[in-house]
Amino acid sequence: MLPVRRNPSENDKRKALPVLVKNFQSLISKELQEAYKATTSNKITEACTLFRSILHSLLLTVVTQASEAEEVMQLVGVCREYILGLSIELSRREVQNDASAEGIKRMLELAA
């Protein structure tokens, strides 16, 4: 028995490829745009979750050209930077209600 195959005409088990659930273009056109939209609409926790999801999906993304591999590496960097920035903003918002000297100091550190 073979799992669902990407190339159903192939009968050799070693050459049969599994179906790709997500490809690079679908990540860029759908999920990345949703993450950007959540970021601009100030839904920071949702945006952070979406960028993490994209990052996890990139681990299993298959590319066929060297140029796509470069784009995947660039997208990993973009997701990493967005996750870092959004996490800092979430932390800053949590500390924002603390009026103590330590809270103000921490809020200024996170804002910087």
From TrEMBL:
GO molecular function: structural molecule activity
A Pfam family reported for this protein in Swiss-Prot or TrEMBL: COPI_C
A GO CC annotation given for this chain: COPI vesicle coat
GO biological process, one term: vesicle-mediated transport
Coatomer alpha subunit C-terminal domain boundaries: 3-112
Name the record gives this protein: Coatomer alpha subunit C-terminal domain-containing protein
Organism: Dissophora globulifera
